[in-house]
């Protein structure tokens, strides 16, 4: 008979009011390497530090596949959402981006797996696209490309190139072994930046079209005004002619 004991130390870094969670840190083996996983948004606040949402549960069930002894879970957004937020609720979060940048600046980041796990959702949401681009550029500027990974499981994982989310993996590959593969930062940045530039170009064209439409409308309104004025003048002249040619009774 074997009896084995284990414990997981959990630390939550949050704002003073508890409305933002910047990081959930879990440690269970000091002798193993660490991973940082970047997901979308948190659902756990500091006062619920011992709870795990489904994404964290699926991730923790597979951390030994990566030979980790600790994990830092961060997100693109820090606002705590109890349910799935609408896109209007996802505001630019520079404080959260700065927090992740601080992690990347630390010396141990060179020995830490950085896992892109934000999935393919919100691919047309500009704040999300720009945040993804900013974070990937930070990693590239710091020479961390070889440390940036994505999770793959099973055969033919088409989502992997975009950084599959642990919830998706857990639901579809919960019993499979999970592995880490190098994430193609250059390819991802090219796709994100192309979307940002394309969106900016479309907005520019829309502004031109709007200005052109407004200018056309103004010209049309001016022409209509002239036509109406001319019509009134002509009617007045015709009325005057009738009055002058009318014989007295």
Description:
It is a single chain. This protein has 249 residues and is α/β, with parallel strands linked by helices. It has one domain. It is 42% helix and 17% strand. The chain contains 5 helices and 7 strands; from the N terminus they run βββαβαβαβαβα. β5, α3 (126-141) and β6 form a beta-alpha-beta unit. α2 (94-105) packs parallel to α3. The radius of gyration is 30 Å and the shape is elongated.
Order of helices and strands: EEEHEHEHEHEH
Q: What would the average pLDDT be, to the nearest integer?
A: 87
Helix content: 40-55%
DSSP helical segment count: 5
- Uncertain ranges: none
Quaternary status of these chains?
A: single chain
The helix/strand class is alpha/beta
Sheet with most strands: 7 strands, mixed
Total strand segments: 7
Radius of gyration: 30 Å
Give the overall form: elongated
Strand order of the largest sheet: 1-2-4-3-5-6-7
The number of domains = 1
**β-strand amount:** 15-25%
* Euclidean distance between termini CA atoms: 132 Å
């Amino acid at each position: 008979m074997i009896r084995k004991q284990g414990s997981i130390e959990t630390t939550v870094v949050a704002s003073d009011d508890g409305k933002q969670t910047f990081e959930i840190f879990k440690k269970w083996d000091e002798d193993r390497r660490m991973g940082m996983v970047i997901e979308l948004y948190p659902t756990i606040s500091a006062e619920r530090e011992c709870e795990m949402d489904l994404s964290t549960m699926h991730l923790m069930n597979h951390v030994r596949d990566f030979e980790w002894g600790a994990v830092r879970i961060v997100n693109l957004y820090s606002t705590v959402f109890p349910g799935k937020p609408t896109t209007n609720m996802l505001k630019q979060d520079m404080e959260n981006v700065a927090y992740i940048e601080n992690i990347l600046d630390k010396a141990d980041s060179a020995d830490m797996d950085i896992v892109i796990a934000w999935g393919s959702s919100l691919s047309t949401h500009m704040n999300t696209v720009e945040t993804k681009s900013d974070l990937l550029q930070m990693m590239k500027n710091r020479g961390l490309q070889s440390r940036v990974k994505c999770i793959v499981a099973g055969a033919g994982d088409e989502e992997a190139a975009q950084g599959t989310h642990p919830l998706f993996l857990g639901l579809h590959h919960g019993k499979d072994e999970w592995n880490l593969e190098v994430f193609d930062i250059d390819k991802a940045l090219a796709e994100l930046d192309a979307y940002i530039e394309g969106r900016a170009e479309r907005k520019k064209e829309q502004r031109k079209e709007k200005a052109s439409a407004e200018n056309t409308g103004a010209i049309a309104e001016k022409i209509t005004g002239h036509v109406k004025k001319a019509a009134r003048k002509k009617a007045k002249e015709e009325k005057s002619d009738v009055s002058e040619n009318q014989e007295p009774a």
